[in-house]
C-alpha cells in the first residue's frame, strides 16, 4: 500500500515545506488548494506531489476530491490541515461576512475534511491528523476577534477529535505556530527584523513530521513552535 499524505492549504511557506518533507520520506503527497495553476507549477517542480483543486470552505467538494485521491494514490494515512484565513479586526469593525469566512476556513473546513477522509485513515494500523493552529487560539486580543475565535474553535474541535480517535490509533495533534514565517514577502514587509525573528518553514515541517512518528504511548496533542525572539 502506498504511503499517502494529503495537505489542505498549500502556499509557498508551510504548505510547500510540508509537501517536500513528506515526499522525502517516500509519501505520495496530495496538495489541495484553490489555485490549481500554482499547484501545477509546484507539482512539476516536486516529484511525488499531486495537485488537486480544493476550497476548504466548500463542503460539497470534499467527498469527491478525497475519493479521487484514494482512487489515484491510495488511502490517506496522514492528513495535514494547513488551511487558514485571518481577518484581524475588532468585534466592532469586522463584517459578518468576514467573520463567517474566517470561521468556515479554520473550523468548519476542518470538520468537513475530517468527515471526508476519516474512512481512509481507519484503513491503516496507525494514522495521523495534524492541524496547523496559532497562538490566537489561546488569546483573544482586541483586533483579532474573528481570527482568535475561529482558531479557538478549531483547537477545541481538534481536541475533541483527539479524544475520540485516539483509541482507534489515529493521532490528532494541534501545532501552535507563534510567529512570522520567513518568506520574501514577510522580509519585505519587515525589513528591519533580524533573522532570528522569523520562523523557518522547513523547521516547522520537521516538527510536524516528528509528530506523525511518535509512539502512541507518548503522543503529543499540542505542540508550540516559535523562535526564541518571539514574545510569549
TrEMBL record:
State the name under which the record lists this protein: Short-chain dehydrogenase/reductase
The organism of origin for this protein: Litchfieldella qijiaojingensis
